Task: inverse folding
């Protein structure tokens, strides 16, 4: 696919088996297992809906277990025009954190504003150059296709309390050769995924207002990023511990269609 061709996201459902990759001394994390299920539906015309559920069981040094259950959903219209989001974090079946709201580009202006409903009602201004999730994904893919090794952007995805954005820096490696997808499990659409170009990426997420040269990221995501928006070989480093996400199941879903049937 040529570098100038538009990014075409593939609606899909992906399942990742989560395991503990590493833990630092004093982190209190002795073990971690879990599963993450992510689904993307929609089209560039009608907007993209993302849903994710991430359930993990964490064990501390004393053997006590904590079950975390994160559920998120979002609808992004026209890739970057608006973002309706909802996120709920359960800990041992009790709500620990929740956010809900709608971020929109101001009409006729480049700036954006969040109308937050949860945890409190308020308006939150965003930088004029902020990206929403699907818009950010398109930027990463376009940068990789163009051969750029670095992509930076402000990102708002409605996570945590829904009132802040992240400064992101993505380091993009050399394109992988197409071929069989590495996974501990076989899934029906494995061969189809191997038809797409992909790149190794390491994306650092920094808290706003901090100098990246003087601070460490809040977390770092390493991933194999496919040109259709699917990800594999996940690793998330939170500093005190890191987790792996093995793509164990993948199903391509029916693509959304525009009215003229020319854009998917």
Result:
């Amino acid at each position: 696919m040529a570098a100038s061709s538009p990014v075409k996201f593939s609606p899909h459902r992906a399942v990742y088996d989560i395991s503990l990759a590493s833990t630092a001394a004093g982190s209190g994390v002795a073990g971690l297992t879990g599963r993450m299920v992510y689904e993307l539906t929609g089209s560039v015309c009608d907007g993209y809906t993302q849903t994710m559920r991430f359930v993990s069981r964490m064990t501390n040094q004393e053997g006590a277990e904590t079950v975390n259950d994160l559920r998120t959903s979002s609808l992004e219209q026209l890739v970057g025009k608006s973002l309706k989001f909802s996120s709920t974090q359960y800990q041992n079946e009790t709500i620990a954190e929740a956010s809900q709201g709608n971020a929109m580009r101001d009409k006729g202006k480049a700036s954006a504003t969040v109308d937050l409903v949860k945890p409190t009602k308020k308006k939150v201004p965003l930088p004029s150059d902020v990206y929403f999730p699907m818009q950010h994904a398109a930027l990463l893919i376009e940068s990789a296709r163009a051969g750029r090794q670095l992509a930076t952007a402000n990102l708002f995805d409605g996570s945590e309390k829904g009132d802040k954005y992240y400064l992101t820096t993505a380091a993009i490696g050399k394109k992988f050769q197409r071929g069989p997808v590495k996974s501990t499990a076989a899934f029906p659409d494995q061969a189809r995924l191997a038809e797409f170009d992909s790149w190794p990426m390491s994306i650092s997420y920094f808290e706003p207002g901090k100098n990246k040269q003087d601070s460490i990221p809040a977390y770092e995501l390493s991933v194999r990023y496919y040109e259709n928006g699917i990800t594999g070989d996940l690793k998330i480093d939170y500093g005190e511990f890191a987790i792996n996400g093995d793509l164990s199941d993948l199903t391509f879903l029916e693509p959304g269609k525009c009215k003229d049937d020319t854009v998917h």
Summary: The chain has one domain: 12-252. The longest strand covers residues 31-43.
